[in-house]
Specification:
about 350 residues, acyl-CoA dehydrogenase activity, alpha+beta, AcylCoA_DH/ox_N_sf, 11 helices, four-stranded antiparallel sheet, Butyryl-CoA Dehydrogenase, subunit A, domain 2, four-stranded mixed sheet, about 15% strand, 3 domains, Butyryl-CoA Dehydrogenase, subunit A, domain 3
Length: about 350
């Protein structure tokens, strides 16, 4: 899917030409281009740009299987801007940790007194992507009456690093009475936590859509060039049926994302993310089935995107979680109007 027609060729030129570039050198290039802060207003220290531009970058990460925390750093910067904290804290790469209500306690140190006192955090946030390889983590804590956003030293709170199926780093953020100076913490509006979650959902779905697009392209090329019994694989009815199914999954995801990007909201974000989770599993499975043995070789690029599909599928929650969030949003008013508006873009 093309989210931003002007940006798409630039993304492909930069990321496509640097898939083998050392992560440090690639990050320096992306920073020079201003991509980590695209979507953050210039007045807040960002590069400007709308959600479509950020989604185009995220899709490029998925399409080219780039191992840099571009999505995560951008989300961290956007959360900091929303809370009125300095975006420059993410300049050297950052992770973002989302703490749902009740998972992390954030409180002022009463001994310090007033609003100038340090903050103290207790709790854990599991599976924080890139936590072990970035200097900064932006913690977003959902509370009943506020969203607490904090700039943390990643090394001070990370558990031993882990590698996921995509061979990307992650870790658990442990906050055992962690003390953070007041100038690195802000209490923002209660709705900010939900807004960050919605943005995470859309951008992760966009990254999945990029990986889905690449997997489908590789598969189409393979079945049209691979000969068996004197004819291409695509001549077989069973193969054509599976390829058609892949196109349907890709197009359904693109349709859901188009709505989520043009009409941002809790329901559209959850719908796009739920569709992305389902499509990720189906596309990864069926593309490997159509490739046969060559699909699992190290030299062939299919595994670079399918391993990301399986890994990203359950980031920030499973498909069931996003479906539940969508259902909660639809039935919140006790009428059919939210569902009708979500499906059609109109009201009854």
């Amino acid at each position: 899917m093309i989210f931003d027609a002007d940006l798409r060729p630039v993304v492909d030129d930069v990321l496509g030409a640097n898939t083998d570039t050392a992560p440090g050198a690639l990050w320096a290039l992306l920073t020079e281009l201003g991509w980590p802060v695209v979507g953050v207003a210039e007045d807040d220290g960002g590069a400007g740009g709308d959600l479509a531009a950020v989604a185009e970058l995220a899709a490029g990460v998925g399409r080219h299987a780039v191992a840099v925390p571009l999505i995560e750093t951008g989300l961290a910067a956007w959360a900091l801007a929303g809370a009125g904290l300095p975006v420059a804290a993410t300049a050297e790469r950052a992770a973002v940790a989302l703490a749902p209500a009740g998972s992390v306690e954030a409180r002022r140190d009463g001994a310090d007194g007033g609003d100038a006192g340090d903050w103290i955090f207790d709790g854990t946030v599991a599976r924080v992507r890139w936590l072990s390889e970035v200097p900064t983590v932006v913690l977003v804590v959902e509370q009943a009456d506020a969203t607490v956003v904090a700039i943390l030293d990643a090394a001070a709170s990370a558990t031993p690093p882990e590698r996921d199926l995509a061979d990307e780093p992650s870790g658990t953020l442990r906050l055992d009475g962690l003390r953070v100076p007041a100038d690195r913490v802000a209490a923002a509006s209660a709705g900010l936590a939900g807004d960050v979650l919605d943005r995470v959902a859309v951008l992760r779905a966009a990254a999945i859509s990029g990986a889905v697009e690449r997997a489908c392209t590789l598969t189409k090329d393979h079945v049209t060039t691979r000969q068996q019994f004197g004819r291409p694989l695509s001549a077989l009815p069973a193969v054509r049926q599976l390829v058609a199914g892949l196109a349907v999954e890709r197009d359904l995801l693109d349709a859901a994302l188009s709505v989520a990007v043009t009409r941002p909201g809790r329901g559209t974000a959850a719908a796009a993310r739920a569709v992305a989770a389902r499509s990720a599993g189906t596309v990864a499975t069926d593309t490997h089935q159509l490739h046969g043995a060559i699909g699992i070789t190290q030299e062939y690029p299919l595994h670079l995107v399918t391993r990301r599909l399986w890994s990203w599928r359950d980031d920030e929650g499973t498909q069931r979680r996003w479906e539940r969030l969508l259902g909660d949003e639809v039935v919140a008013t006790g009428s059919d109007e939210p569902l009708w508006a979500l499906v059609t873009g109109a009201s009854v």
